[in-house]
Structure formats: C-alpha cells, structure tokens
Design brief:
The structure is a homodimer. By secondary structure, chain A is an alpha+beta fold. Chain A has one domain: Winged helix-like DNA-binding domain superfamily/Winged helix DNA-binding domain (Arc Repressor Mutant, subunit A, Orthogonal Bundle). In chain A, 51% of the residues lie in helices and 13% in strands. In chain A, strands 1-3-2 form a three-stranded antiparallel β-sheet. In chain A, strand 2 and strand 3 form a beta hairpin. The longest helix of chain A has 15 residues. Chain B binds a DNA duplex through helix 3 and helix 4.
Chain lengths: 104, 104
Amino acid sequence: MTLEEKTVPVVFKALCDENRVRILQYLRSGEKCACMLLEDLDIAQSTLSHHMRVLCDSGLVRGRKEGKWMHYSISQEGVQRAMVLLAALGDVETEEAGKPCCER
Amino acid sequence: MTLEEKTVPVVFKALCDENRVRILQYLRSGEKCACMLLEDLDIAQSTLSHHMRVLCDSGLVRGRKEGKWMHYSISQEGVQRAMVLLAALGDVETEEAGKPCCER
DNA sequence: CTATAATATTGAAATATCTAAATATATCGA
DNA sequence: TCGATATATTTAGATATTTCAATATTATAG
C-alpha cells in the first residue's frame, strides 16, 4: 500500500476542523438532513453547506438528495478507505538493522 | 467511544499537508534523522522543523534526540490511537427505523 | 407560472497555515 | 573556550481556510 500525497490530505481534511468533527459526531446517530444539523450546530447555513462539501469530498460522508432536502450520513466505505490509508502508515518496513544515517 | 472535537483535529492535521504525507512515507522505511529528510525533501530546514513539530504533536511521529541529531520514526501507538478515533466514526448507532427528520 | 422553502454558490473579511531567511540554541571536537 | 554543525525559533510574506451576508439555484405547493 502506497500513500498518495495528493489524495490523503483531501480525505483527512474532513477531520481537521472542530465543526466538522461535531457534524460527524451527530451523524454517528444516523442519517440527518441539513436542516437538522443547522438547528443543532449554531452556524450559518452557508457555513454548513461548505463543511458538508468538504466532508463529502473526503468520502467519509455521503449526501442523498430527496426533493429539496439533503440527507447526510457516514459512509462506511469511506471510513474503511481512510482506515486503510492510515493503517498503511503503521505498516513500517522491516527495520534495517540499526544502520546509522549520520556519522557519530 | 466519543470523538473529542478539540483533539481530533490535532491528530489528523498531520495528514493534511502534502509534505507531511511525504515525510511519513519516508519514515515507513524506518527511523530517519532530520538531515536525511532534509536531503530528500527539497524544503528549507526551518520548514522541515515546523512540519516535524506538527507530526510530533499529532502523536503519529516520535522524535529521539541523539547528540546533535534528531531521529524521527512513526509511533505505532500514535497510529493505533488515530485508528481508534477513526474507527469510532464507522461505528454508527443502530439506525432508528427510517424516522424522517423533515416533513415530506 | 409564481411564491416559498431548502440548499448551494459567491464575495469579502478574519484567521490560520505554509514557507523561507535570519537568528538562536545545543552539542561536539579541537 | 572557540568554531563548526544540527536543529529550533522568530519574523514576515504568500496562500489557504473559515465564516457569514447576499445572492443564485432547485424543488415543491398553490
């Protein structure tokens, strides 16, 4: 597994803002429509819309349009993909027997 | 598991910059000293130092001082902690049987 | 078709982040 | 102690992000 430098930031930017983490927290209790989130979060509507775009771009959240309402939910597949990317980090190659990188 | 809104961004900011992902990529082949990273990455020394601080603050990387050299390596514990945080997202509560949030 | 309601987009200000040069600190060897 | 080397911190400019008001778009009801 090789980490792609361009795509990894797009995925994890979702988790780099306090408000987006709060939104994800809400979504853990199931699919929510934007109006619901707007009630609970005390942010402007355009701000919510911006954050939902970032979340959807990351793949961690899925948006479903139903009439004039947008319903958002956590994407299991997206979370799984992110887990794989993160796990790749922990997957360190076999240590090259104490080879020193600098003269001592 | 409950996601803490303040701490989660600190952890995942590590993965939100292309250069930091490249650094993590390098560290996958084992512990590296700063001078090594500096050679490979084509960025200023102060820039590297800044990124290493962000990485260490996230807990994903551990720094070890040896004389005048700093050695950096991926922290298995840190990656594990991040995995737990991320997994909490996928752990969605039992869906409340299609309860609609908006009038239709 | 028109009015209304939900969401998206645009524009602009405030704030944060990235970058590098200059400087500071720490360690080692002479 | 002095000079050289590795890394950290400070400062400042460039860029990106967050936020909200205003406006645009889309869908539904009448």
